[in-house]
Amino acid sequence: MGIVKRQAFYNSIFNYLGQVIGYVNVIVLFPILLSQEEFGLTRMLASMAIIFAQLSAIGSQRVIIKYYPFFRRADGMGDNGLLPIILFNVTAGFGIVCAFFWVLKDYFLATQDSELFHQFYLVIPLLAFLTIMNWVLESYLKALLKTSFTSFLNNVLLKLLWLSAALCYYYEVLSLEAFVWFYCSVHLVLILLMSAYLFRLKEVSFRVDKAYYKWRVLKHLYRYGAYAILDNTNSALMNNLDKIMIGFLILDDLRSVAIYAVAAHLSGIVVIPATSMNRILTPMISRYWKNKQIDLVAKIYHQSTVINMVFTGALSVLVWTNIDGVMQLVNKDYASGVYTILFLMLSRLVGVSFGLNGDILLVSKHYWFNTASGVILIVLMVIFNLIFIPIYGFVGAAFGTLLARIVYNIVRYIFLLVKEGLNPFKVNNLMGLAILVAGLLVGSWIQFDSLHFLIEIGLKGSLVALVIAIPTYYFKVSEDINSLVDDLFRKGKKLLS
């Protein structure tokens, strides 16, 4: 447990540090260092490469995590041939997807007006291949319980390398062509570092035990990989489909993609507490379900809806009631993304307010429905984006995402209610929602126009936070939140005394 705790501690530090660097990069620095079209290009290339990579990877990330313990040699020197299988699979998958990518080249280029996209279209396969290899090595190190190193590389070093590329271009050290190729090749640095680390650990071996290459063994691996590719591709599409559709449906040289990307990152701030909380609750769900402690699963299901709604909702209210001041922190060319931020925040709030429905589905016998509902979400996003983007532009994409996620979460909620009798909603959910609405109304009413915008954000934010926090505590909307506050007060009294 000492190793696990130490790895978890460093992972938390690198994750939060990476989030800070990522937000500073995307929200503050990149809009200054790059033109809108150049910034939009980096987002478009990355989104397309991620989907390309997920289709090519054939579920390899999950396969490595699940099957490494079965393949590991008794002497600890290698994996009886798992790595060669994985490398063969991703190479074959990459080749097949590359063929489709080349066939569709004329279509993609004909439906995109950006000359930069035309110029750097062939960067996408390179970025996709480097992304795949990064995932494979990262998953292999995870299987070895060496997670803090990969967390540092992907959360901190990668984002610093991207920033260094943008800075070099801004100060004319790199040409535009050199910048794009460097920006899309920085994964190679991570791949080399992870490879060196694996060789240093003496964990890389290409020795093959033919007993593990029989079909009765491999069929389980490929069956699981087929399921994983669907699930992973769903996740990639959920996070990138809207940006890609904006790029192809709005012909403005990818400027709308850049504005949408900044809005998406700003809206992502509100789910940081929920994401951290879910990392703790998800393993508990798995354990309770395995032990058939459904009452405890139901309890956590309910607790997650309340806690996540209160924290995410409070942050959403704070951001929206201070949106004029917040937008002054962003390049003025991105100010048109205000309502995009609102709809994306609401879509994230909807997602976390339905609790851990996806985690419950994954550990239950209904795990297949997590993938099936993901397909429903993708189809809805495509339909709504096709309807609303031509009418409302990138704001329409955010609105379409909100509608799709509402339907998606209602479908999963009804499924768990019917199949397992799990209902996470109680009276205190409505109480929490009412308090958030009250905070929104108060924040919209209060104005400090004569003050500097940073002072206004501080004052208004403090007042709105009190309007939400005091009744949340007084009416005991969440016992867990009350317990946390009581513990903080007790520790504060001890420190003062």
Query: How large, in whole angstroms, is the Cα Rg?
Result: 24 Å
Q: The biggest beta sheet, please?
A: none
* Number of E strands: 0
Element order: H for helix, E for strand: HHHHHHHHHHHHHHHHHHHHHH
Strand content: under 5%
Structural class by SSE content: mainly alpha
- What overall form do the CA principal axes indicate? globular
Number of domains: 2
Low-confidence stretches: none
Residue share in helix: over 70%
Instruction: Note the total helix count.
Output: 22
Distance between the termini: 34 Å
| Average of the residue pLDDT scores | 88
Secondary-structure topology with pairs:
Elements: H1 2-33, H2 36-57, H3 60-71, H4 82-103, H5 105-110, H6 115-119, H7 123-143, H8 147-170, H9 176-185, H10 187-201, H11 215-249, H12 255-268, H13 272-290, H14 294-321, H15 323-327, H16 338-353, H17 357-363, H18 367-392, H19 394-420, H20 427-445, H21 453-474, H22 479-496
Helix pairs in contact: 1-8, 1-12, 2-4, 2-7, 2-11, 2-12, 3-4, 3-7, 3-11, 4-7, 7-9, 7-10, 8-9, 11-12, 11-18, 11-19, 12-16, 13-14, 14-16, 14-20, 14-21, 16-19, 17-18, 18-19, 20-21
Mind explaining what this structure looks like?
With 497 residues, the chain is mainly alpha-helical. It is 81% helix and 0% strand. It is built from 22 helices and no strands. The model has no long low-confidence stretch (mean pLDDT 88).
Gist of the model:
The chain has 497 residues and is an all-alpha fold. It contains 22 helices and no strands.
Key features of this structure:
2 domains, mainly alpha, about 500 residues
